[in-house]
Amino acid sequence: MSKNISDARLEPTSDWSASPRTVVITGVTGQVAEVVATELSRDNQVVGLARFTDEAARRRLEECGVECIPTDLLTAEFVGVPTDVDAVLNFAVVKSQRWDVDLRANAESAGLLMAHIKPKAFMHCSSTGVYAAAGSKVLEERSPLGDNHAPIMPTYSISKIAAEEVVRTMCRLLNIPTTIARLNVPYGVGPLGEPRGWPAFHLAMMQAGMAIPVEADQPNLFNPINLLDIAASIPALLEAATVPATILNWAGAEQVSLEEWCEFLADRCGLTASFEVTDSTIGGVTVDTSKLQSIGGATKVSWQEGFAALADAYLAGQDSSSDPTAGSTER
């Protein structure tokens, strides 16, 4: 990993992290939330909520000092979950594609969680997938909402929009300063050195010789954001929390097409990128990040160095899988 990427974790973006805080993180075993919890646990008391079906992830978190409390947001039974903490970071998401389940788990549970904990600040991780499809148009926070992910995940965008509205309501009802952050394409390297995110999935597809599905309105533009930039921007997002809720795009400053990042990854990893135009995928979602930058949450990892680190992690994993001594304690 390059020096610049490592530095991203060393420079807090606001005074929120100047003293230790108690932070509850939901969905803590997820690809994004685990990295955030790991980074925040360096200087704060972190409580992680999840079902913890992934025992390995739980062990990793506990080794970092994260207190893990098994919780199922679908049932909204918050036994043992602390109240009146400094902040809640809501990363939990359910994608069962069953309408009742996903609306209950993603929308209702967010409001019930806010009512139970009543934190001093609440950060809800939403998605730029709440915007109506707009091709290469740069979307601001006031842009029209719509069923963006319908071609591949019928319940996703609608349940995300519903969750935003529940969070906005509870923010005002309970007077909890809140930020709703619409995340674009998260990616990066996980705690075990493994590539994470949608681009990592594209790498796996290319390794298998599969064509990458793309929407016809090309190029498919996004604003990918590195996991370390995500973690580093958390203090700024919490400082920006207000009543009514602050809503902003949580994305990298650089606009990059899916086609370009796949070709970049393929070239670095010795693979071939091929594409298949289809209606059965999501199109580009590119956003205005000026509001994020204005609160001190500007990203620092360029997409080229971030994707280079992702590719290098992939290559290192390939080397390990072909090494007969990998995993051995005898060297």
Structure write-up:
By secondary structure, this protein is of the alpha/beta class. The chain has a domain at 8-193 and 225-253 and 288-299: NAD(P)-binding Rossmann-like Domain (Rossmann fold). It is 36% helix and 18% strand. The strands form five sheets. Strands 3-2-1-4-5-7-13 form a seven-stranded parallel beta sheet, with helices on both faces. 47% of the residues are buried.
Mean pLDDT: 92
CATH architecture of the domain at 8-193 and 225-253 and 288-299: 3-Layer(aba) Sandwich
N-to-C SSE series?
HEHEHEEHEEHEEEHEEEHEEHEEHH
Shape: globular
- What is the CA-based Rg, rounded? 19 Å
- The number of strands is 16
- Biggest β-sheet description: 7 strands, parallel
State the strand order across the main sheet.
Answer: 3-2-1-4-5-7-13
CATH-assigned fold name of the domain at 8-193 and 225-253 and 288-299:
Rossmann fold
